[in-house]
Amino acid sequence: GAAATRAELMLLEFARRDHSDVLDETVLRFAAPLRRALGLDPAGPATLPLMTWACNATLATKARPPTKPPIKALFVHVPKTAGTTLNLVLAAAATRQRKRFHALTFADLERPARRAAAAAASDLLSAETDVSFLASVPTADLALFSFLRDPIARAASQIEHHLAAGRLAGPDAALRLVSPSLCPQLERDAFCAELAHPRKCRAGGWCSIFQNHQTQLLAGAQHFPRDRAAALRRTSANLLCAARRSLASLLVVGLTERLQPSLCLLFHALGYGAVFRDCCDPGKPPCAIFQLRASKHSAADRARSRPPANASSYLATYLDDDLLLAAMYEGNALDCALYADALRLLDRRLDALADRLRPFPPDDLPLMRHCD
């Protein structure tokens, strides 16, 4: 039945948990009422046992890439990070290098035989999945790479996508989705069955698609046993630790806001010499591959669903609302920390390659403009 009190609501949420999501530290506020409702001494331990587990290297994903080309690799496509455009670029680069590129569909991801066949037959794979994909193809020798995006911009783009798909009642739903306090556990699977790929909810449910989603995907969950996925998510510190371990083991981590230099770093790491010479060598003009752009994205979705809106400025809707922006930051604080790590890692790797790279145009978007 309906909960009449805060304690009853908390008990109901706790009973529904499958522990595949983050046990938010704010639960400690309700520890005493919970213990009292369970007939226990309310003056229990200050820290719950589940909150004290430390990030364990044996549980975190290990994806150490081969050190020398040729390298077979998987692009871990994080939603709303320009991944559709990146797939166009990767397909063109693979063609230029006479490599086999394959973008896995959601149907492929649900069939072990298809996953294994694609991994065996392709040189370059792409999938909207997470780092646990490696656990689903244990015989594949794949390096992983990914691209991250400014966390606030990514969350806004994700909301726009679901607004256009009719899954959200209206823009006012955004505050509830991005706030850890307002998007409760009881909504964990409310809309997951309607998604094109419900498996993405395994990393924390519906709310996690809008909160710290990049951290969730780099920690991994979709192809892990539930107990392993749960162990990585006992606290936000554990979750971030696991994601950072994966980040450090990626072949390359690029940033949407630094797309061209990130791609040059990737082409170099993959051993795609012809593409690197065409697009990245000093003195070369911008190459055709870098001009590829997808026509399907959140700005276009917004224009189709709400024609009077300016498709190129939908982000202002979120940035101009102080309450919504604060909630988005609260719900994506781990992603902001991970993005900062990725930026430092990318800068170090680009510095090491600086004498082989042409100058790139100034960044269209300031880095970390919303997380700082």
Major pleated sheet? 5 strands, parallel
Share of β-strand residues: 5-15%
Class derived from helix and strand content: mainly alpha
Q: N- to C-terminal separation?
A: 43 Å
What is the compact description of this entry?
This protein has about 375 residues and is mainly alpha-helical. The protein is built from 17 helices and 5 strands.
Give me the secondary-structure topology.
Elements: H1 6-16, H2 31-37, E1 73-76, H3 83-96, E2 101-103, H4 106-109, H5 112-121, E3 124-127, H6 133-136, E4 143-148, H7 151-164, H8 173-178, H9 213-219, H10 226-231, H11 236-249, E5 252-255, H12 259-270, H13 273-279, H14 298-305, H15 316-319, H16 322-331, H17 333-352
Parallel strand pairs: 1-3, 1-4, 2-3, 4-5
Helix pairs in contact: 7-14, 9-11, 11-17, 12-13
Main attributes of the structure:
372 residues, mainly alpha, 6% strand, globular
Can you describe this structure?
The protein contains 17 helices and five strands. With 372 residues, it is mostly helical. A five-stranded parallel beta sheet has the order 2-3-1-4-5. α7 runs parallel beside α14 and α9 packs across α11. It starts with 5 loop residues before the first helix and ends in a 20-residue tail after the last helix.
